[in-house]
Amino acid sequence: MIDTVAFGILPYVVVAVELVGSLWRFYANRFKFSSLSSEFLESRQLFWGSVPWHYGILTVLLGHVIGFMFPREVLLWNSVPVRLLILEVTALTFGVQALIGLCMLIYRRATNARIRAVTSPMDIVVLLLLLNQVVTGVGIAITYRWGSSWYAAALVPYLRSVFMFQPNLEYMAPMPWMVKLHVINAFLIVGILPFTRLVHFLLLPISYLWRPYQLVIWNRDWKKWRKPAR
Predict the structure, then answer these.
(1) Per the count of CB atoms within 10 A, which of 1, 5, 116, 153 is most buried?
(2) How large a percentage of the chain has pLDDT more than 70?
(3) How far apart are alpha carbons 116 and 109 in whole angstroms?
(4) pLDDT, tens digit, for every residue of 98-118?
(5) H/E stretch holding 110
(6) In terms of Cα–Cα distance, which of 16, 21, 19, 20 is closest to 32?
(7) Which of 76-108 are b and which e, b meaning 16 or more Cβ less than 10 Å from the residue's Cβ?
(8) CA 223/CA 230 separation, integer angstroms
(9) Which is the CATH superfamily of the domain at 2-225?
(10) Is it the case that residue 57 has pLDDT exceeding 90?
């Protein structure tokens, strides 16, 4: 029953919530359809946390997408032990990098009074879910090795069955609890996207190509600027 709810019903519930919630938020309040950056409040810790986090998590996500789209090619690549080892070490490296960056961002938000003042309860929920997702991902990579192979052989068929509206729970039933938790946590992250800062993940900055440039001035002598002659 738990598997049926978690892997047969939950995926469709979270996708429905995500679609409806994102459309509602986009048309109701476009200003908040962003990450609402706190860089003006503190920038040094943000840089050292945000850069490894984004590079790490985006690389890991890209790997998941490639495995989903080309499972046979991934298995063919992994048929050579050296190539399998290279892929596994690379994925683990970027996963650890994402974990380090996320921990730095959490530390920044917990210790900086100015950042805490603009932290909402949903921000805390997001950070906890992301932390759980990355920790379980790194834990899976260390505990259940050669994940790129069994991901392509077992989890990808399950995910594809979900997209076909015929979820095949036989692929998920024998999975270890950490893998199941990782998958369920991913579904929950998708479901809460419309209600968090993560909603900016759904938008590609394509409009940056034609919008007017922005002039950001960090320091300015306002006494001189306000002179009537200027």
Answers:
(1) 153
(2) 83
(3) 6
(4) 999 999 999 999 998 888 888
(5) helix 81-111
(6) 21
(7) ebbeeeeebeebbeebbebbbbbbbbbbbbbeb
(8) 11
(9) Transmembrane di-heme cytochromes, Chain C (1.20.950.20)
(10) yes
